[in-house]
Amino acid sequence: MLGACIVQSSRTAGFAGEFVKVNKIMETFLASVHKKKSEGEDVKSIEFSQFLIVLTLFGVVLAHPKVHFVPKATLKLLSKLVFALFLPCLIFTQLGPSISVKNIIQWWFIPVNVIISTAIGCILSCLVAFKCPPPREFVRFTIIMTALILATLAIFYWQ
């Protein structure tokens, strides 16, 4: 029944009419789920999932080359902004409250392990780069990637 309603809503003319029909379908679906569940946690997760799906579809439509609502240069700039500014801010705001002096003392081995593993990885990757020399423009890349791979393997090994 839900699939038939979505197909019917895709035939309606105009984006606004389509959005209203999909919204009504989701409200009906959520109401039926809410009747079945008394806790309400599942309904909240479904509402959040619905919000993410609609937001993603809206972004896909805006970024599609045929629609050309947002220029390609602006998308590049927004992508850099998201990964350089918004994602670190989100990580720190979500993890910040859980960091305390007690937790840092309790988890001392994690940063020490990362530093030691990265240092050993750097030394080994320098040996690899000098023993099997890559092209000149890839020497730093080879050293960094080998160090990161070895550090990552060491971190997973010790866990």
UniProtKB/TrEMBL annotation:
This is PIN-like protein. It is a multi-pass membrane protein. InterPro entries: Mem_transp_PIN-like, PILS2/6. It comes from the Eukaryota. Keywords: Auxin signaling pathway, Membrane, Transmembrane, Transmembrane helix. GO terms for cellular component: membrane. It comes from Salix dunnii. The keyword Transferase does not apply. Pfam families: Mem_trans. GO terms for biological process: auxin-activated signaling pathway; endoplasmic reticulum to cytosol auxin transport. It is found in: Membrane. The chain crosses the membrane at residues 48-65, 77-95, 107-130, 137-158. Its main location: membrane.
